[in-house]
Amino acid sequence: MKYVDSEQVHKKMGSRLLANNLAKTLFFMATLFGLVVLIVLIYRVLADGLGWINMDFLMNRLSTDPERAGIWGAITGTLWLMLVVAPVTMILGVGTAIYLEEYAAKGRISSFIKTNISNLAGVPSVVFGILGLTVFARALDLGSVVLAGGLTMALLVLPVVVVASQEAIRAVPQFLREASYGMGATKWQTIKNVVLPAALPGILTGVILALSRAIGETAPLVVIGIPALLIPVPDGIFDKFTILPVQIYYWTIDSALVAEYANLAAATIVILLIVLFAMNSIAILIRNKFQKRF
Amino acid sequence: MPVVTEKANLNTKTANLNQKAKENKKVVYHTKDLNLWYGEGHALKNINLAINENEVTAIIGPSGCGKSTYIKTLNRMVELVPSVKISGEILYRERNILDKSFKVEDLRTSVGMVFQKPNPFPKSIYENVAYGPKIHGIRDKKILDEIVEKSLRGAAIWDEVKDRLNQNAYGLSGGQQQRLCIARCLAIEPDVILMDEPTSALDPISTLKVEELVQELKEEFSIIIVTHNMQQAARISDKTAFFLNGEVIEFAETDKIFSTPSDKRTEDYITGRFG
Amino acid sequence: MRRLKGVLHLVKSAVQHDNKKLNVREIIQQKKKSRSVNNYTEKLIPKILFGIAAISVFTTIGIVLTLITETIAFFKDVPFIDFFTGTELKPLGENAVFGVLPLLTGTIISTLIAMLVAIPVGLMTAIFLSEYASEKTRKALKPLLEILAGIPTIVYGFFAFTFVTPLLRSFIPGLEPTNILSPGIVMGIMIIPMVASLSEDAMSSVPNAMREGALALGATKLEVTWKVVVPAAISGIIASFVLGISRAIGETMIVTIASGSSKNFTFDVTQSMQTMTAYIVEVTGGEAAAGTTLYYSLYAVAMTLFVFTLIMNLLAQYISRKFREEY
To answer: How far is A60 from chain C (nearest CA, A)?
Structure first.
């Protein structure tokens, strides 16, 4: 006896296929939705801001007069921040990765550290701001200076560097380590002379991505206490500073009062996006160029 | 010939051979009752082998017989596997290398290794060869230059690479990379060179070049070569050991093993009945 | 004379040759004798690296300790019950009241709105990329999604405030200039790439053999996706939702800019609401004097926030592990 009635199946097939095609269109639309929003966003930002970008804008300092305001302080502040974040997060991140991949026994300590890194990755950026405020700005009495902000951001983006470095180190083939050990090299000599150089592109990619994240975050630095008003252009890591996103924030919230502030914010957004795009492109270039070398 | 007598003959012959080895040439490696386990698996069973200096000793046997494992115990590379356990003695020039006081880095400085798949570092040709001397403390550029040239010549590859020492080693062909690895090994002037199937990944011409090299090198070094290519063993080695299931079945002069093997299993393997 | 010179020359070159003869073995042996420093380094390095790895642990400990100590101080001033059940939040001024419910509703409602956008759109995007799109289309679209994910949240905040809110106001009467709906939607858009990417990873790792089995029985692609692939990848998909929720809870700038700072306890999405994150920004922006209840309230709210996101993250990890299909 047949359990599957081919006539019934034939009848239903029509509606099933229709559902299939509708669904396909729906899914495609959903995918396009995100892209459409992206295009609209970029368009709006360019429309509002592009006209306001010129050399004066880039080179001037802050001013309450929109015509004369510039982001030079924010640009130098961003560079100074990167100067602190890059080495700190690199040493901490690569060091942790080397420990986890090359030295740690596969046990409770190792998985504890790994879980901890995962959890750190999920902590909201404001909470890092609170940490920075309490420990670096207040307890260590640094104030809201480059060093305090840099240390805070270095910890915030640490998981990015750790994970990228772990993957890069893991990708170094075992036979390269064997070649080194076979000649009587010690473990650290092998890591320093063979593993790390081979893993360097992956590590660099991770650091660049971490940096681009660090200079795009607003909340932690606002919490630490970067003010809205005129700030001197920083000259060292113990100077007060601001970065592009913070500048965008203050101009945006005041744009209800001064309409041109919205344009200044948009212009700054354009600059920020260009910088981030450049950094990410470099990271992708490095990754593509050095992938699958072995 | 009845089996019992045959076995007795074999024992005498191996004993005689070892005796002769002691009389004429110095023994560079003496393995005594060596047993090795990977976890629960008993990979090497009571290995007793005496290997002479300035000879090419080949180790043959079917896949999984333990020959690679054995050669890796000689420079303690086998320790890179976490679940490994070893018992017995391995005497390198009269000193037991399994002793805790024996520093493994010193051992590997004197005992070099060439691997099955060529594994040059992703560095320049020069840096590859200079790696060994550098990590052992030699910094003087002039000396390093000399060592690099000497080693590349010793590996019969100098003429091919002398104009491109700064190029990345990955640009070389497979055969050239393997000779580069041999040069890298020669750079620290080891005493013994272990070769784990060094030509199995190479084309016939490169294989021939490496085999010629091995014949030259035995003047200065002692060479132990694992190979699954019996013809290669017959071509280039002075003595051959036949391994099966983790045991040494027979160990004798190469000519003898390949013409009149004492053990039936050796004969079966050589004539291709299994393997 | 010439003969003598010749012999001398031979002897000289022989001697020179001997002097030049390099004995690398000897050199290395000598260097090894003076090598004790190296041993020290070799033993020290793992300890140093462990210390560096421990810093990440200390960071977590630092966060937890900081929050706990000041939160305890807060609960000395404000009773636990009052905080967690109080619907009034007036942190400034003489008769300050600290009830967290207005902030909780702000956070929960904005998260809800965000996930109502991110989950369907994200999942459908993931399905399209994983099951329907050709390799070329995937390669073209995925990077664009990653760009969307890489846009700083401040830019989304600007977008919500200057574009989305006016747009919504033009056809939703009664929508305030600062409201929770607009940033909620924009947050959802921001989270789409996260949900899409993680779900797509989960679906891509479903072996093709399973799809082929269903197709061979005459199932349509939709049926294969819905009845075979999604169930097989469900743990990764749900984990992506939970992570998205965690992200939404922790998001600050979009809501700070676009939703204002009204602390009314309400469920009306057209009105301004404040989230826990926005509260923290507001209070720190005002330079709260250390030691005041206002100052401690910062930490209490941050603690609540931290606990919420921690629970979500642990939940996501648990789901990933527990319900992972073994292929």
So the answer is: 22
